Amino acid sequence: MEFSMFASLPLTALRAFESASRLLSFKAAAEELSVTPTAISHQIRSLEDWLGVALFERLPRQVRLTEGGERLFRSLHGALLEVAQSVDTLRPQRSGSSLTLSTTAAFAALWLVPRLGRFYAQHPNINLRLDTHCEVIDLHQDASVDLVLRYSLDDYPNLYGQCLFDESFGVYGSPEQVALAARRTPTLISVRWHNSKLYAHGWEAWCARSGEHWLHQHPVSREYDEEHYALQAAIAGQGLVLASNILVSESVSSGLLVPYKGEIQVDGAGYSALCVPGRERHPPVRAFFTWLHEEALLSGLTRRSQPSAASVEQAAKIS
């Protein structure tokens, strides 16, 4: 019975549907599969006729999945990914494997890249590619990305996830600037957040907790779009920066920055590593998850919550 059921599956049409659903474009699917857009349209129409339900809404200049199409795509994409990974494990081992990781430019520059030497030493045959663009990535639709490192207040109930560490914010500066701040109002350096709900009114919260009245004394302020610019300004002695304890950790350990009233911290969000369920079993992804867990332990900043094993329709890159 099972054999006859599998024998009747329209595999070519299902493959065309998976590509068109992931790319949300018949034309892009045609390019990916090296066929014509007309062939893709014909395959999807035949699949809809076979199922007896519409899978796409045909809109002017675009297509959108119906509810039934969404259900089929979720199960089909996961199944094809599982098959592709199983086939890959049976092939003779090549000299190296590739891994594509998406994260923010700040996290890559300030935390990840300085530590990657240890990953390469353990796994010299894994070729890691970093994607630090700021577009939203839907992991269920972009199969080119293996995993993401995300900073967010949100949970991701539909992705396989590993919580790395929680974040808090403190004030840091060069040793000279920290010494001067005890005697005069410092220049305040902060970051213009892309998502304001993550950390609005940061300096106000820190000053209220620390008892400092700097904001009432009309200090000079500097604002940057990215955390690594703000930290470089603080390292150069331009003032004190309100910064993540995670992103500032390398600069503090090297003595370039020191905390000002280090016991005063305000809560931030958390960092997690995420992938489509099932992809965590892919050897390069599994190796990177293991290494990340080891690095989080070494940092002493591991999260209070336990790693989750869940599977996310969309993970937004937030910095």
From TrEMBL:
UniProt cross-references to InterPro entries, sorted A to Z: LysR-type_TF_proteobact-type (IPR058163), LysR_HTH_N (IPR000847), LysR_subst-bd (IPR005119), WH-like_DNA-bd_sf (IPR036388), WH_DNA-bd_sf (IPR036390)
Tell me which Pfam families the record gives: HTH_1 (PF00126), LysR_substrate (PF03466)
Domain HTH lysR-type residue range list? 9-66
Identify the keywords attached in UniProt to this record, alphabetized: DNA-binding, Transcription, Transcription regulation
Give the family from UniProt.
Answer: Belongs to the LysR transcriptional regulatory family.
Name of protein = LysR substrate-binding domain-containing protein
Q: Which organism is it from?
A: Pseudomonas monsensis
